UniProtKB/TrEMBL annotation:
Lineage: Eukaryota, Metazoa, Chordata, Craniata, Vertebrata
One of the record's GO cellular component terms: mitochondrion
Pfam families for this protein: GST_C_2
Gene3D superfamilies reported in the protein's UniProt record: 1.20.1050.10, 6.20.200.30, Glutaredoxin (3.40.30.10)
InterPro entries hit by this protein: Glutathione-S-Trfase_C-like, Glutathione-S-Trfase_C_sf, PGES2_C
Domain GST C-terminal: 124-242
Entry's Gene Ontology molecular function annotations: prostaglandin-E synthase activity
Highest taxon above the source species: Eukaryota
Protein name (record): Prostaglandin E synthase 2b
Length: 242
């Protein structure tokens, strides 16, 4: 996988590469989901047409690092007829977009400060990175210790930048509680009986830290476990919305 990512010219995951009329590479998870969902619903459009609905905006931050943002990245782009058919409840569509934003703009930002909260947690996280990667003994050793302590200190900067609590676990717990409150007691998922794209986004964020202490803690100290297990079951059975 590491070699494949290097060959593709990108260091981001996930990556969607399409070979056809022309080569197309996407490495923004939200755009990939929105574009594929649009294609699944409106089969008259090709992926090349759909991608034009998500124009790229490039910018450079104060550190001189260039970043790319995609307009409409959280929206499934449909005509009025398709919208009425697949999103008869306009509030449901707004909620889906809102919580997809939230997953990217807040929940995702909570991960690094929680995963690398302490030197030991940072080492445990990088131990998994090394064990799952194709690294030699020396390369793996250097990556584990240099990477872990770099991310430990970087996570402290993120904590300050986003004005998180002194114990960042509390922010993670509050986020999980906020998500479960949005779903409510009468629904299984935010999308109702079946997951919508917001469910998938939140599941993807939390799933990225499964096996680490932060994941175990949020499962044990909030009510999110039931929803997470239900998502696992649906995904195993390919029961997501078409």
């Amino acid at each position: 996988m590491r070699q494949e990512i290097t060959l593709s010219g990108s260091s981001k995951v996930p990556i969607l590469v399409i070979e056809g009329e022309e080569s197309l590479e996407l490495n923004d998870a939200s755009v990939i989901m929105s574009a594929l969902k649009t294609c699944m619903i409106d089969k008259s459009k090709t992926i090349y047409e759909v991608i034009t609905y998500y124009p790229q905006l490039k910018s450079t931050n104060i550190f001189g690092i260039e970043s790319t943002e995609f307009t409409n990245r959280h929206w499934v782009m449909l005509n009025e007829i398709a919208l009425e058919l697949h999103y008869p409840d306009k509030a449901a569509r707004r909620d889906e977009v809102r919580w997809r934003h939230w997953a990217d703009d807040w929940l995702l930002c909570l991960l690094a400060p929680n995963v690398y909260r302490s030197p030991m947690e940072a080492l445990a996280a990088y131990d998994r990175v090394v064990s799952e990667g194709n690294y030699g003994p020396v390369e793996g050793f250097v990556l584990k210790y240099v990477g872990a302590f770099t991310m430990f200190f970087f996570s402290k900067l993120l904590k300050i930048w986003y004005r998180m609590e002194s114990d960042v676990r509390q922010d993670l717990y509050k986020a999980a509680d906020e998500w479960m409150a949005a779903i409510g007691k009468r629904r299984k998922f935010l999308g109702g009986e079946r997951p919508n794209l917001a469910d998938i986004s939140v599941y993807g964020v939390l799933g990225s830290i499964e096996g680490l202490q932060a994941f175990d803690d949020v499962m044990n100290h909030t009510k999110i476990r039931k929803w997470y297990k239900a998502m696992q079951k649906v995904i195993r059975e390919h029961g997501g919305q078409d």
